[in-house]
């Protein structure tokens, strides 16, 4: 007797009619492309055997610009990227373009000055620190050394965004310039008119006594020498052509208060006793003052006026307190005093995962944002709950029936098929058969595809 096998399954029945794709209640011809959600381009692909599929082949920017999957295009001041994952997920990602404006509204390439610092609006709307500016208008490029008020000053931006102008050399490395144009080494004594000077730190020629042709030796400060009938008297400290008495103070270079100090041997020197902020507020050595969005510190030792972000200061000179931004795979936040923290991780599909948490990404598996060896890392989450087709939650290792398949919650929150299931009959292992009555049940796993088939003999 002739026997015929009839295939009973949910696959489409072959016909001689032209094959069309079905998408959102639409019939699509082979190779037809439509735009969905005003953001994605869907293409219909059919086969001669009657099978068909639709796939995302590209994205559409808000202005209508078409972008192929895996490509990016710069549109105006924004960059739109059509991201396609290995799992086939496609997303439209938007970021700042090369010509984007900076947070303060400055255009690309525009330069401006804030107090003693100069900035430029760089590519992608990123604020770039470019130079320091002295009170006399002198400009020193970032990372370079120049002269301000006759002194070598280095202009630096540190990794935490702090900008400093500080003395570049050891104070003893400066030479003094005499009125006749000759240069004197540190510690060298020389005569100018009726005064004897000694080249001191920072190139300052300090008066240490007086000179008279009729007297063979240097006349000490506040000393009288009689040569014939002519007494010679010298008074105290001199700076920039002005003389100062012992204990008197004055402001130098609009940044420091100097004090005239004399000693028992009647020599004199100038000491820095405090710093002056850009607003003109005086702060003692070893203390600091918050002024506007900056904190100014008068450092001890080689006294400098140091500037760091204040409570409302910007992080990296760009981001305001409370402002958040994304770089690579991390979301950062600006906290008071220029402190930058990592709040969360961001996957390439755009899923945000708070630090210390884990989430399922569109590709179907789970990722976590954790601290590894002291550094924040975005990585796959090994153990994570799985979600069934009906929205139920299953724990790691738990199994359940879903349609005609038996699933198990595996690593990374991904459910894997471990067999097939037939109501009122039982389970069938992968690549195994089960006979019940006049029906043969097949559970097939081949080429990463899972199929369930029922055969009946007629």
From TrEMBL:
Q: Which residues form a coiled coil?
A: none
Q: What InterPro entries would the database entry show?
A: Mig-18-like, Mig18_Fn1
Which positions fall inside the Abnormal cell migration protein 18-like fibronectin type I domain? Answer: 20-88, 107-162, 237-300, 318-374, 390-449
Determine if Lipid metabolism is one of this entry's keywords: no
Keywords carried by this UniProt record: Signal
Per the record, the domain of life is Eukaryota
The leader peptide range reads 1-18
Q: What is the name of the protein in this document?
A: Abnormal cell migration protein 18-like fibronectin type I domain-containing protein
Organism the protein comes from: Caenorhabditis remanei
């Amino acid at each position: 007797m002739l026997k015929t096998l009839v295939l009973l399954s949910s696959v489409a029945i072959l016909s001689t009619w032209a094959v069309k794709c079905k998408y959102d209640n639409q019939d699509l011809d082979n190779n037809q492309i439509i735009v969905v959600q005003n953001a994605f381009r869907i293409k219909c692909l059919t086969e001669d055997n009657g099978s068909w599929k639709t796939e995302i082949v590209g994205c559409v920017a808000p202005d209508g610009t078409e972008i192929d999957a895996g490509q990016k295009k710069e549109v105006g001041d924004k960059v739109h990227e059509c991201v396609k994952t290995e799992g086939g997920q496609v997303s439209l990602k938007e970021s700042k373009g090369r010509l984007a404006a900076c947070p303060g509204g400055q255009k690309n390439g525009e330069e401006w000055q804030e107090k003693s610092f100069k900035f430029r609006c760089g590519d992608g709307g990123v604020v770039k620190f470019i130079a320091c500016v002295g009170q006399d208008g002198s400009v020193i490029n970032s990372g370079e050394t120049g002269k301000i008020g006759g002194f070598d000053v280095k202009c630096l931006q540190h990794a935490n965004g702090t900008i400093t102008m500080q003395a570049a050399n050891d104070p003893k490395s400066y030479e003094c310039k005499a009125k006749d144009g000759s240069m004197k080494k540190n510690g060298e004594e020389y005569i100018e008119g009726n005064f004897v000077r000694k080249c001191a730190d920072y190139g300052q020629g300090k008066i240490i006594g007086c000179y008279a042709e009729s007297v063979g030796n240097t006349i000490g400060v506040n000393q009288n020498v009689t040569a014939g009938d002519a007494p010679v008297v010298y008074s105290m400290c001199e700076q920039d052509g002005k003389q100062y008495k012992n204990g008197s103070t004055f402001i130098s270079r609009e940044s420091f208060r100097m004090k005239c100090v004399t000693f028992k041997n009647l020599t004199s020197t100038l000491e820095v006793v405090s710093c002056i902020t850009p607003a003109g507020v005086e702060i003692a050595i070893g203390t600091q003052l918050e002024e506007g969005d900056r904190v100014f510190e008068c450092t001890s030792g080689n006294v400098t006026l140091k500037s760091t972000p204040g409570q409302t200061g910007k992080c990296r000179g760009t981001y305001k307190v409370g402002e958040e931004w994304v770089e690579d795979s991390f979301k950062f936040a600006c906290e008071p005093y220029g402190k930058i923290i990592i709040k969360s991780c961001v996957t390439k599909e755009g899923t945000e995962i708070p630090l210390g948490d884990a989430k399922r990404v569109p590709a179907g598996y789970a990722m976590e944002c954790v601290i590894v060896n002291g550094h924040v890392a975005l990585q796959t989450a090994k153990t994570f709950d799985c979600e069934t087709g009906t929205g139920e939650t299953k724990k790691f290792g738990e199994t359940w029936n879903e349609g005609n398949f038996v699933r198990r919650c595996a690593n990374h929150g991904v459910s894997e098929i471990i067999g097939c299931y037939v109501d009122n009959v039982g389970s069938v292992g992968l690549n195994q058969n089960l006979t019940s009555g006049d029906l043969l049940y097949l559970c097939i796993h081949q080429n990463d595809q899972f199929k369930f088939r029922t055969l009946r003999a007629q």
